[in-house]
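pinned: reference chain
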Amino acid sequence: MGSIRNSLFYATIAVMIDLVLGLLIGYLIVRTRLWGRSLLDALSMLPLAVPGLVMAFGYVAMTLRWPFAEGDPLEGWADVIGANPNPVPLLIIAYAIRRLPYVVRATVAGLQQTSGELEEAALNLGAGRVRAVRTIIVPLIAANLIAGGLLAFSFAMLEVSDSLILALREEHFPITKAIYVLFERLGDGLYIASAMGVWGMALLAVTLVGASLMIGKKMGAIFRV
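pinned: its structure tokens
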């Protein structure tokens, strides 16, 4: 139960971060003509190309250097190796970065299918950019945001690479790390791990179907560009 609570907490915070960043990045890519938009788009997709283990070991190495090392300003804020490790911030950041591409692609698809005339009309009538996005853009692409958020949440709940490397104490275990540890326990460990794996697959299936229903089309439509 502790691992389920941890995964729910990590995934929920990560998805909230992804929704904010995904909306911002998608808006800059589609609605602006800023230099470097293509580079920003490519960087937002980079987590899909970099193996999770490589990123996880990068987070570990980061905590051994300034400003996270012993005696530095952020000592103890995020730590994987030590007497009192605190990997929670790193797990949330890792989950958010790894699943950010889903939200970005969903946001970009929604913005490309939505006319910018209503937003321009709101700006002409005196609304600020932030208010126009909040009252015009977000309601129009709400289904895309929810679908992307559901995908990000389901895959964050079942993230493997970062969970195995960053969570070393039982109190910080997410679901996937708990399954790994339970599998090696003598007696009923194999059965409990298998049961948790089935629940994980059920969660993933439900969220995928929910995301598909939210956009009203096949799942591939989420990633249409």
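why pinned: The CA atoms of residues 8 and 139 lie 26 Å apart. Confidence is low (pLDDT under 50) at residues 218-225.
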